[in-house]
Every structure is written in C-alpha cells, then in structure tokens.
Amino acid sequence: MCGRYNVHQDPFTQALLAQLGVQAQLHTHLNIAPTEPVPVVFEEEGERHLRLMRWWLVPSWVPEISTRFSMFNAKAETLSTSKAFRGLQRHRRCILPASSFIEWTAGQGGKQPWLIRPAEGALAFAGLWDVWEKDGNCLESCTIITTAAAPGIDRLHTRMPLMLRPEQFDAWLDVSDGRAPAPALLAPRLPCDFVVAPLGTGVNNSRHKNAALLEPVGPEQRITPET
C-alpha cells in the first residue's frame, strides 16, 4: 500500500513537471496522509493540467462523500475488474508527483517508519481520478495505484506505488483512445536506484509536518533495480 508520502518544492520536482509538459509551481507537502489535498497532473482534450485533488477517490456514481471503503489506493492487478476503477483506467488516468514515500515495519517499540526515496530525481506515481458532483457541490479526487513490491522494497512491505518512467508518461496520460493501459505500464519495477533509511517515530502521526521528521535516524541503504 501507499499511505503516506512527501512532495518537495525543489529542482527535481520542477524538472518532473517540465517532463510532463506542465508549467506550474509545486509547493512542499510533507507527511501527506489520505484525504489530504495532493497535486495531480492529468490530461483533458490534449492539454495537461496540474490541480490539487483529494487523495481518497470518491467515484462519480456514489451517493455521498465517504471514507467507508479504502479508496486511496487501487491495486494494479484488479483495475479491470473493480467497479470503482475499471472505467477510470480507460478515461481518467493521472500522475502524482512525489519526492519520497513512507512504509512501516514491526519494531520492538511499535511501528518503525522508513523513508523510501530515489537516489536522485523525483517520482511519478500512476493514479486515477474522478469528479463527484451533487446538489451544486463538486469534488475532484484521486487514488494511487499500487503493485507488488520490487526486490529491496519487499522487505518493508508487500506493496508499493506504481512508479512510471519518463518514457511512459505520454502513454499513461493519453486516454484519447479509451483503452485500458498496456500491461507493460503496470509492471512492478523500480524506475531508478533508491535509498531507504529509518525515521523517528514522530512521523507516525500524520499531523506532524516538520521537515526534521524526515531526517534519517540510522544508516541509509541503497536499492538497485533488477535488470
């Protein structure tokens, strides 16, 4: 799963926006948790946009906004069979810029958080989005697609965000043909080298947004993607 991540306003995320063909400025969002607003890049009628959306998908057809079901993640393996996601995978795909994400392992004193970040650069999480409207109210929301964890990440969690490489951006965002994404776009692989480091448990509380909480409290470990 992916239940917490970070976005830094830095040259890496700005370079990512340039690759995505979006002229906009990202702002720093730390220790982001589901239901919080997050920056989302999507394409409509051949134009790309960056907009803040609620990170917890609210499908257009539900009667009311709710967190009854866990809709902040969508499994890549079941996109085609899920009522909530099968149409969106063909018509409303998006990319969520990110700098790092956080996972937890069991520790002697409770849950041990780990920061997972690219050795260099920014991340492009594959996602889906939708618009809910009722009684004059409108909500744009999104979900992050997850896949089986790649070697190195799998020791922390069985799942990880689906991360796209630059050469996949156009194919993912282009929904003009109304087709489901090619299987290659959903493959569970790391797009680059990663660094994993333990964090202090203060980050476990999503209300804590201090950048100091993202400083490692132990040695960093490098993960190289399998070829």
Describe the structure.
- It is globular and about 50 Å long.
- The protein is 8% helix and 37% strand.
- 37% of the residues are buried.
- It has three helices and 13 strands; from the N terminus they run βαββββαββββββαββ.
- The model has no long low-confidence stretch (mean pLDDT 95).
- The longest helix is centred in the first third of the chain and has 9 residues, at 11-19.
- The two termini are 24 Å apart.
- It has a single domain (5-223), classed as SOS response associated peptidase-like (hypothetical protein yedk fold), CATH 3.90.1680.
- With 227 residues, it is mostly beta strands.
- The strands form two sheets. It has a six-stranded antiparallel beta sheet with strand order 2-1-7-8-12-13, with no helix packed on it.
Number of domains: 1
The major β-sheet equals: 6 strands, antiparallel
Shape: globular
Q: Helix coverage percent of residues? A: under 10%
Q: What is the residue-mean pLDDT, rounded to a whole number?
A: 95
| CATH topology descriptor | hypothetical protein yedk fold
Number of helices: 3
CATH homologous superfamily caption:
SOS response associated peptidase-like
N-end to C-end Cα span:
24 Å
* Assembly annotation: single chain
Question: What structural class do helix, strand and pairing data support?
Answer: mainly beta
The helix/strand series, from N terminus to C terminus, equals EHEEEEHEEEEEEHEE
Level-1 CATH class name? Alpha Beta
Number of strands: 13
Task: Give the CATH architecture.
Answer: Alpha-Beta Complex
The value of Rg in angstroms is: 17 Å
What proportion strand?
Answer: 35-45%
